[in-house]
Design a protein that fits this description.
The chain is α/β, with parallel strands linked by helices. The chain is built from 15 helices and 8 strands. Helix content is 52%, strand content 12%.
Length: 333
C-alpha cells in the first residue's frame, strides 16, 4: 500500500520502518525540517531512534501535503495532546475513504476525549469521511525496530477495516490481532502509562517486587473499572492492550513513563525530569485527564489520584504510598 506516517518520534519511526520492510511504499512526516534532512542523508533518526538503520526505501518529508495526498492509509503517531492540532492541519489534504490508523496513546486534556473521539469530531466538523482503526499493545519502539518478536492489536468498529490493518502491519516478527472494542483498546493504552508512573515511583523508593506486583494488579483493576464505565468490554483489559501493555510499561527499562516515575521516587522535581527528556512521557498529561475522567464518571481510582497529587500538587511519594495502603479494607472483587 501507499502509506503516509505522521509523526517521527520513536514509535512513528519504528512503525514506518516496519511497514517499509514489509514492502509498502512509505513516507514519514517529521515536524523538524533539519531532522528530515539528516534522515535522508544518514538513514537514521538520531533524535528519537538513534543507532537504528532505517530501510533504504523509506522516504521522508516535512510537508504535510506530500505526506497525505494520494495515500491509501495514514498512520497517525503524534503525541496525543497534539493529535487534534496535527490532524486539523492535514485534513485539507485528506481524501475521503482513506484508512486512518492511530497509534497514539492518551486522553486529551480539557475535553477528556480519546483519540477516536478527537478524530471523529474533527472529521465531522470538516464534513469528511474516513475508515478509523487504532493500534495498541506491548511494543517498545526500539525492540520493534530491532526486529524482536512483537504482538499488538488493531481495533476498529468495522471488522473489515481491522482485518485490513492486520494484514498491512503483519510481518515475520510483528503479529497483529483484531478487536472491535475501540474504547477498551484506547483506555488500556492510555491508562497503563499512569500505572507505569506509579510503578516507577515505587521502584524509585526502593519498595521492591511485592509492591510492583500489587500496583500492576490493582492498576489493572482500576483501568478496567474506568474503561467499563466509559463503555469498554472488561475482557479487553486481559488482552494485549490491557495486561500486556501494562506489564511491559511497568517493568521495562525502555519505558519513558516508568523512568519518570523512577526519578520522582528518587526525589527529583518533575519539571527537571521532563526538561531532560527528548521524548514525550504520555502518562504525565494522561494522569490529569484520567483523574478528571474518574471524577466525572464517579469511579474510584485511588492509584490515579495519588499519582495526580504527586505530579500536580507536589505530594511526597512516600506519603502517597502510605495513603494507598491505609485506605479502608475491602473485598478484592
Amino acid at each position: 500500500m501507499n502509506i503516509g506516517v505522521i509523526g517521527a518520534g520513536s514509535w512513528g519511526t519504528a512503525l514506518a520502518d516496519l511497514l517499509a520492510r514489509i514492502g509498502h511504499q512509505v513516507t514519514l512526516w517529521a515536524y523538524e525540517s533539519d531532522l528530515v534532512v539528516r534522515m535522508r542523508k544518514t538513514r537514521e533518526n538520531d533524535v528519537f531512534l538513534p543507532d537504528i538503520c532505517l530501510h533504504e526505501d523509506l522516504k521522508f518529508t516535512d510537508d504535510l501535503a506530500v505526506a497525505v495526498k494520494g495515500r491509501e492509509l495514514l498512520l497517525l503517531v503524534p503525541p496525543s495532546q497534539l493529535m487534534r492540532q496535527v490532524f486539523s492541519q492535514l485534513l485539507p489534504h485528506l481524501e475521503d475513504g482513506v484508512v486512518l490508523v492511530s497509534a497514539s496513546k492518551g486522553i486529551e486534556n480539557q475535553t477528556l476525549m480519546t483519540m477516536s473521539q478527537v478524530l471523529q469530531e474533527e472529521l465531522k466538523k470538516a464534513g469528511r469521511k474516513a475508515h478509523l482503526a487504532f493500534l495498541s499493545g506491548p511494543s517498545f519502539a526500539r525492540e520493534v525496530a530491532g526486529g524482536l518478536p512483537t504482538a499488538v492489536v488493531a481495533a476498529s468498529e468495522d471488522e473489515a477495516v481491522a482485518e485490513l490493518v492486520q494484514k498491512v502491519f503483519s510481518g515475520e516478527r510483528f503479529r497483529v490481532y483484531t478487536n472491535d472494542d475501540v474504547i477498551g483498546i484506547e483506555f488500556g493504552g492510555s491508562l497503563k502509562n499512569v500505572m507505569a508512573l506509579a510503578a516507577g515511583i515505587a521502584d524509585g523508593l526502593g519498595f521492591g517486587s511485592n509492591t510492583r506486583a500489587a500496583l500492576i494488579t490493582r492498576g489493572l483493576a482500576e483501568m478496567t473499572r474506568l474503561g467499563v464505565a466509559a463503555g469498554a468490554c472488561p475482557q479487553t483489559f486481559a488482552g494485549l492492550a490491557g495486561m500486556g501493555d501494562l506489564v511491559l510499561t511497568c517493568t521495562g527499562d525502555l519505558s519513558r513513563n516508568r523512568t519518570v516515575g523512577l526519578e520522582l521516587g528518587r526525589g527529583r522535581p518533575l519539571q527537571e525530569i521532563l526538561d531532560g527528556m527528548k521524548m514525550v512521557a504520555e502518562g504525565v498529561k494522561t494522569t490529569i485527564s484520567t483523574y478528571q475522567l474518574a471524577s466525572r464518571l464517579q469511579i474510584e481510582a485511588p492509584i490515579t489520584e495519588q499519582v495526580y497529587k504527586i505530579l500536580e500538587e507536589g505530594k511526597d511519594p512516600r506519603q502517597a504510598v502510605v495513603d494507598l495502603l491505609q485506605r479502608s479494607l475491602k473485598s478484592e472483587l
